[in-house]
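Forwarding the complex inputs:
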Amino acid sequence: MLSEFELIAKYFTRPARTAALGVGDDCALLRPPAGLVLALTIDTLSENTHFLPGADPRRLGHKSLAVNLSDLAAMGADPRWFLLAIALPDVDEAWLEAFAAGLFALAEAHAIELIGGDTTRGPRTITITAIGTLPPGYALRRDAAQAGDDVWLSGATGSAALGLAHLKGKIALTAEAAARCIARLEQPAPRVALGQRLRGVAAAAIDVSDGLLAGGDDYELVFTAAADRRAAVEAAGRAANVAVTRIGRILAGAPEVRLLDRAGKPLRVEPLGFDHFR
Amino acid sequence: MLSEFELIAKYFTRPARTAALGVGDDCALLRPPAGLVLALTIDTLSENTHFLPGADPRRLGHKSLAVNLSDLAAMGADPRWFLLAIALPDVDEAWLEAFAAGLFALAEAHAIELIGGDTTRGPRTITITAIGTLPPGYALRRDAAQAGDDVWLSGATGSAALGLAHLKGKIALTAEAAARCIARLEQPAPRVALGQRLRGVAAAAIDVSDGLLAGGDDYELVFTAAADRRAAVEAAGRAANVAVTRIGRILAGAPEVRLLDRAGKPLRVEPLGFDHFR
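Prediction (whole assembly, two chains):
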């Protein structure tokens, strides 16, 4: 069986590209680009909580990084570097090879470099810290929404929750719909290009991985922009090849969500968002 | 029961000090200090692998950060910021309060700031990414040892392994020795001050958390320095209030460890270091 150090060398080591020192020492070393702000995020995927036992390892490698890239996208940041902490119950080389293939395919697509990590034995858990860069003053912070801003949604939400319900046997989708919804659940496409193009256009942004109004695991962006930026938002969506839909408006006053039907009549809103402890 | 968001607000949110944006958004934002190199590390502690069920939560909070500070120390870096990913099987407020107290006490002692995190349900697992800074060219890289360098050890190793053996009932220490060894196991003191003072003095350094020759979980530094820097190494140890002991010498030739007894006779060396999968 591979040792821990052979495992790291075989599956998780790439030559350092932009890092001054990559995988293999106590720390990685970076020279941060002058004049830019760093955006940092950390996210964990745990077996049973975030993925089912037996989940496809290639898709899991993809998703482990995708959820972090989605956070960078929600700040409008350019992906740069990541660190990977992985706990595994055993060394399964076929699993590792597929996991690494999915992880690095997405990493290469977004030019984000693995610079360090930690490999331990334990219940299957993947934690990634991703780091991006931004010009100062351009981050899409969630506290930047203004009364009167439009509220926009990228792509569409709900497919991931349908895919999960199908996998759990709660609903039965057609084969075509099941494949599409399960791919949305297991291989989400982080909206990095859209986030980048919304810098200087949108005001506030968040990702809706915890659910927009119900369900969850959709790695779409909800963002606000001033009403006079509608053409610019639509141009950003076209340039990033992502649909953008105006779904509401920020009102002045105490925080409250009002959901209206097509006729403008209020709909009852259930408690919002996924909560791990509720 | 606390919700996930109440839990984060109550136990893991502090006002941002040096960060441009701290806990609570999709990413944290930092303006990296001009002209410095960043050192980054990630480490996981998993229940059953790294700590026993029922481990004291205050000590676990301390240790979760200490293992990362030890990696920064091994590069000679100044601690700056950290991100915390924590998976918990349930919300136990007494546990959380004690864990946070241990974590933040050590964070404050080293002026390292929590800037972001992730809280999920799952087997008890703590992953921290710590970030430090260094002047360019001063990192204590493990590839920097030169033939002829002295090899040095900070503090002493072995106590943590004794503490663990005692806890597991494999040996019986006196009450006084047990308390001392268990404290070394559960509340290691990362050698941050020594690492900082070894910048420009030592050549290569690593921490020996995976064991120096046997045992493990000692957060001491092994480092090399040119033979003409002995007085400077001893001064660094005194300034950091840590014993430093010259334990060997780097030889030219193929990598190999030769362990000699007091009389200079070779001792048999067992396979070195802890491996999670062996």
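Chain A has a mean pLDDT of 90.
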